[in-house]
TrEMBL record:
This is MFS transporter. It comes from Sphingomonas alba. Keywords: Membrane, Nitrate assimilation, Transmembrane, Transmembrane helix, Transport. CDD domains: MFS_NRT2_like. The lineage of its organism: Bacteria, Pseudomonadati, Pseudomonadota, Alphaproteobacteria, Sphingomonadales. Residues 1-414 form the Major facilitator superfamily (MFS) profile domain. Its main location: membrane. Belongs to the major facilitator superfamily. Nitrate/nitrite porter (TC 2.A.1.8) family. It is found in: Membrane. It holds the Pfam family MFS_1. SUPFAM superfamilies: MFS general substrate transporter. PROSITE patterns: MFS. PANTHER family: HIGH-AFFINITY NITRATE TRANSPORTER 2.3.
Length: 910
């Protein structure tokens, strides 16, 4: 029986907290060998594999007994079974203190493992007191009893050092006995057991309870728990040994620091239950697996010494993760694993209210087996490879497989639901569809793809479409701002490298400033087509999370002048991940808004996203002057002028902001299912002349903005060495971003082609002014012209994008006249999004060619004039192309833009 909507049963709170305390003590006993095993290993001279077997044996017993104990809890009542488990485990733990040989200890460990079986008993017992809409939080609180592992790691080393490992077993056994007595005193039987006693009915037979386990999906579901719980237990057992072996800590310190992982991996399970109740288990599991892939990858890389045959002899440098970064990373891993544990068990009482014990027991058993198998595998890998980080390589492979399997299963279920006309009925975990007991309602998914999206329908737009579109817009804008910040961070970092001891030539510095533009522009070509394939929500989450790689890399690389130039080249290329995000972000947002508001929406997304450049150029010079992260961030560097800098902050400052962005994107954004299409469907844009013409024009606007953002700090430092131009570098990108965000409505009102023509005219004047004031050696006049160029490029960024939907609609109507109007409109929307993404990719090469042009011009002629004259001729060609192809008497947009200027403007901005 499952409790419906309403209040918890009487005594629910006392049952919950008593069970949580009891489970905490059980878990402390269950993991006792992670500490006393270290003393036994030293005494008996055990190998790594033997140690892993000893530590994992209690986990094996606790796992295998969970199914039968869960069924007994359903049959005889969780209260009495839970107490019996604690008493039996206490006896076995006490007898452990009298074991002398390795064989006797293994037998004793089998008995100690009974304590772990209390989990399935508690799940069955607690769930019966709460309605289904509150079971996620309740089971999350109960599951937080995993913190017992931290209790053992924190206290047991002190007892073992003072009194011996035998005393630890005796004290922990006594605690179990006391807890069992208190548990019986403060709790009562669950409502189902009480009702059964009143009616005289019998519990279901064990064969009936086990029948549900024939469902293959139950076993698949259990595999998720193999990682989120099994890997947690394995690491809880293995970390003290790992910390002692890798960082040479004593047993007390290693135990206390291992608790640093166990505590968040346990307590935050409560929050995971709350998130699963609110957002759905599927969303929580996606985030859990995604972050776990990233953290286990970082932890997998072993300490490595590189020797490069350089021009002046061998160059040696070393990469390794220090103790503090290791603890921070393991904390993050533990936190997200705790959310995943709660998400997995959120579904069991909903899908199987009458078989909670059996199904919960099986899932817990598979997870517990992970806690047994993985420590053995860790020890074996150490013996075979001799590499400590091999344990994290195994976890990386495991969670990557879990994430890939879950994602493709979900996508398959979504496609099947769409074909069947029931896209809104896909459950939280689609691979569990059809699973469960008769007459049990599978909860509908609360977040995810949107099947019905009609922004051109005024009623639909007013009744909810606008709110959804705006929410996606603002989240996308925040993530895009971070992308631009990481993409352009080299423009400030590079200018500082010589001052902190890096001996790079001028040409090498310009290459570092230019390479993010090269890689970012190249990635945009691919990113432009990925949103319709993967969905905007998933792709925004993954692409934002990928920014952590260059952010961490920069933080580590700049701390030592011995870091080779090759590493900086790689990091500069990785910064291009931020540049690639622009194409996918703009393509995604273009689907959400009607044509009359599309220009303004894209201007806001891009313009405010561009603020990331200005934010970075303002924030990084500030944060590198202070020890922002204390000992966590590493030591500072002494600059050539004697000041102390913390250049690593240029990368580390973005890490928490990126994490927030990835999480918010997953929980707050949507996919528009009608926008889904293959690459082949989108590839038609390459055969359209206007695609290539717009590439040329957008390069004249956005290429100018991003290229000047990347090149101006170093250019000004070289041509005006007496001026500290870094103080003013953020002003140009700031004005360019604001002008783009603030003027999108102008193009919507008067037409993007007409605005673009005047933009190029102003840019021509600005370039002539830059040449004049550069020859006059006037920094003030030169800087004023640079600002004018930024403002004009910002306006042009918005106006050129505004042109695309109109151009593509005219082109589709001309070439696909036989299609129904609705199909032509959807095809135009798809191609517009693809064109917007593609032209942004081509234009982004400006971040490469403008800094490189400046560098080559200065290297060959001693001045930047040659580069500036080249830019001037390019802007003249852009103005001529805009006039003849789009805004002039024979332009394809002339009639459309004349109609725009004769109609009242929209009063509701995007």
């Amino acid at each position: 029986m499952i409790r419906g909507s309403g209040q918890p049963a009487p005594g629910a709170s006392r049952a919950l907290w008593s069970s949580t305390i009891a489970f905490t003590v059980c878990f402390a006993v269950w993991t006792i060998f992670s500490i006393i095993g270290i003393g036994v290993k030293e005494r008996l001279g055990l190998s790594e594999t033997e140690f892993g077997l000893l530590v994992g044996t209690p986990i094996l017993t606790g796992s295998l007994t969970r199914v039968i104990l869960g069924i007994w809890a359903d049959q005889f009542g969780g209260r009495r079974v839970f107490a019996g488990v604690m008493i039996a485990a206490a006896i076995a733990t006490f007898l452990t203190s009298y074991a002398d040989t390795y064989g006797e200890l293994l037998v004793a460990a089998l008995g100690v493992g009974i304590a772990g079986g209390g989990f399935s008993v508690g799940v069955s017992y607690v769930s019966k007191f709460f309605p289904k809409e509150k079971q996620g939080l309740a089971l999350g609180i109960f599951g937080a009893g995993n913190v017992g592992a931290a209790v053992t790691k924190f206290l047991a080393p002190f007892v073992m050092v003072a009194m011996g490992w035998q005393a630890v077993a005796q004290v922990w056994a006594a605690a179990l006995i006391v807890t069992s007595v208190l548990f019986l005193a403060f709790t009562k039987e669950d409502p189902e057991q009480v009702e059964r006693a009143k009616s005289g009915s019998k519990a279901a037979a064990m064969s009936s309870q086990l029948a549900v386990l024939r469902n293959l999906q139950v076993w698949r579901f259990a595999l998720y728990y193999f990682f989120v719980f099994g890997a947690f237990v394995a690491l809880a057992l293995w970390l003290p040994r790992y910390l002692m072996g890798v960082y040479h800590l004593d047993v007390k310190t290693a135990g206390m620091l291992a608790a640093f992982y166990s505590v968040p991996a346990s307590l935050f399970r409560i929050y995971g239950g709350k998130l699963a109740d609110r957002y759905g288990a599927r969303s929580v599991l996606y985030v859990t697996f995604g972050i776990s892939v990233l953290t286990t990858f970082m932890l997998s890389y072993p300490p490595t010494t590189y020797i490069i045959d350089g021009v002046r002899g061998p160059i040696t440098f070393r990469t390794e993760m220090g103790l503090v970064p290791f603890l921070v990373t393991i904390f993050v891993l533990g936190f997200f694993m705790s959310l995943g544990k709660a998400a997995v068990f959120k579904h069991i009482p909903v899908y199987y209210p009458n078989h909670v014990g059996a199904v919960g027991g099986l899932v817990g058993m598979v997870g517990g087996l992970g806690g047994f198998v993985l420590p053995l595998a860790f020890g074996a890998l150490n013996d075979l490879t001799g590499v400590w980080t091999s344990c994290f390589v195994l976890l990386f492979v495991l969670v990557s497989v879990a994430l890939a399997w879950m994602h493709f299963a979900i996508r398959q279920m979504e496609r099947s639901a769409i074909r069947a006309g029931r896209a809104g009925q896909v459950p939280e975990l689609p691979e569990m569809r059809g699973l469960g007991e008769p007459d049990i309602e599978i909860p509908a998914r609360r977040a995810g793809p949107i099947a019905d999206w009609r922004p051109e329908d005024e009623e639909f737009w007013r009744s909810g479409g606008r709110a959804v579109a705006r929410r996606n817009l603002w989240i996308s804008t925040y993530c895009l701002m971070l992308s631009f910040a990481v993409w352009m961070v080299w423009s400030v970092v590079v200018a500082r490298l010589p001052a902190i001891g890096f001996d790079f030539t001028t040409d090498q510095l310009f290459w570092l400033a230019a390479l993010p533009g090269l890689s970012g522009a190249t990635l945009r070509i691919f990113y432009a087509f990925l949103v319709p394939i993967f969905g905007g929500r998933l792709w925004t989450t993954l692409s934002t999370g990928s920014l952590l790689i260059p952010a961490f890399g920069i933080g580590y690389a700049v701390q030592s002048p011995d870091t080779p130039y090759l590493i900086f080249l790689v990091l500069a290329l990785l910064c291009g991940l931020g540049g690639g995000n622009f194409a996918s972000s703009m393509a995604n947002i273009s689907f959400f808004f009607p044509k009359k508001e599309k220009g303004n929406a894209l201007a806001l997304n891009a313009g405010l996203g561009n603020l990331g450049v200005s934010l970075m150029q303002f924030l990084v010079p500030l944060v590198v002057t202070m020890s922002l992260f204390g000992f966590l961030g590493g030591h500072g560097q002494v600059a050539s002028d004697g000041t102390q800098l913390w250049m690593q902050n240029a990368g580390f400052i973005w890490v928490p902001l990126i994490m927030v962005g990835a999480i918010v994107a997953w929980f707050g954004m949507n996919d528009i299912l009608s926008a889904k299409s293959s690459f082949a469907d989108q590839a038609t844009i390459f055969g359209r002349l206007h695609t290539w013409l717009m590439c040329w024009l957008y390069t004249g606007t956005f290429g100018t903005f991003i290229g000047m953002s990347a090149g101006f700090p170093l250019l000004a430092k070289l041509v005006f060495p007496e001026v500290n131009a870094l103080k003013y570098a953020f002003v140009g990108p700031l004005l360019g971003a604001i002008s783009r965000a603030a003027t999108g409505w102008v193009s919507d009102r008067y037409g993007g082609a007409r605005v673009s023509f005047w933009v190029f005219t102003v840019q021509i004047a600005a370039i002539l002014g830059m040449i004049w004031f550069l020859d006059a050696q006037s920094f003030g006049g030169f800087f004023a012209m640079v600002l004018l160029l930024f403002v004009a490029s910002g306006v042009g960024n918005a106006s050129t994008f505004q042109m695309v939907p109109g151009i593509m609609r005219r082109e589709i109507d001309r070439t696909e006249a036989a299609l129904p109007e609705a199909d032509r409109r959807m095809q135009a929307e798809r191609e517009s999004a693809a064109v917007i993404g593609f032209i942004s990719a081509i234009a982004a090469y400006g971040a490469f060619y403008i800094p490189k042009a400046y560098g080559s011009s200065i290297q060959l002629t001693g001045t930047a004039n040659v580069a500036l004259w080249g830019f001037l001729f390019f802007y003249v060609s852009c103005a001529a192309l805009t006039w003849f192809a789009y805004s002039g008497p024979r332009g394809v947009l002339r009639d459309l833009e004349r109609k725009l200027s004769s109609t009242p403007p929209s009063t509701v901005p995007a």
